[in-house]
Amino acid sequence: MARNESMTMNFSQILDTLNQASAFELFRLQIALRRKLEDPSWIMAVRQRLQVGQTVEYFDPRENSLRRGCIDELRRKNVAITDLTDGRRWLIDYTCNNVDGVDIQVREQPTRGLGRNEVRVGDILGFIDRDGRERSGKVIRLNDKTVSLQVDAGQWRVAYSLLHPVINGVSRDVIDVVALPKSTS
Q1: Same domain, 83 and 124
Q2: Which of 17, 61, 149, 180 would disulfide-bridge 137, Cβ 3.0–4.6 Å?
Q3: pLDDT attached to residue 171
Q4: What is the mean pLDDT of residues 29-49?
Q5: What is the 3 state secondary structure string of 82-130?
Q6: What is the dihedral of CA 83, 90, 61, 124, to 10 degrees?
Q7: What is the 8-class DSSP label of residue 162?
């Protein structure tokens, strides 16, 4: 099940195609992908490359980023991992492990602003508020159509299309938020 090194997926092209699909077509694709990911041969292909005590990178869909963890236990359908950043223990699917070191950046071509897959929890982003003032803040949550930002002493929900990256920026009064699925603690 290993991928050829020269084979790379063009996620921008895939996303363009998906944007033209109907809701029914997307649902059918979701079912097909779920079946493929639950195929025992995929699970075994990943499991054979893992061992207890190994440090791995895994994808956290809520933060849209890779995280590092240490494998505590290999189970039948998932892996028990202790996150190296916060020390919390999580159960993750085998297929969430980035065993091939794949570049996870999805580069969308939005009409303006940032695309949903270009934003991660912890990023510092800027926007212009309703009064025309420039603001910036730290991403604390990714929503379907908006991003929740910690800005100064408050929180803002801002549409992806209104956001821009802040280079070398620091937001004041930023709090750290950790949200991972399937805690086993």
Answers
A1: no
A2: 149
A3: 43
A4: 90
A5: EECCCCCEEEEEHHHECCCCCCCCCCCCCCCCCCHHHCCCCCEEEEECC
A6: -40
A7: G
Q: Domain range holding 173?
A: 110-185
CA distance 134 to 137: 11
pLDDT digits (tens, 9 = 90+) for 64-93: 788 999 999 999 889 999 999 999 999 999
**What 3-state class would DSSP assign to 76?**
coil
Q: Is residue 134 a part of any domain in this protein?
A: yes
- Residues 6 or more apart whose Cβ sits within 8 Å of residue 18: 26, 29
Percentage with pLDDT > 70 across the chain: 81
Amino acid at 126: G
Q: What is the pTM of this model?
A: 0.55
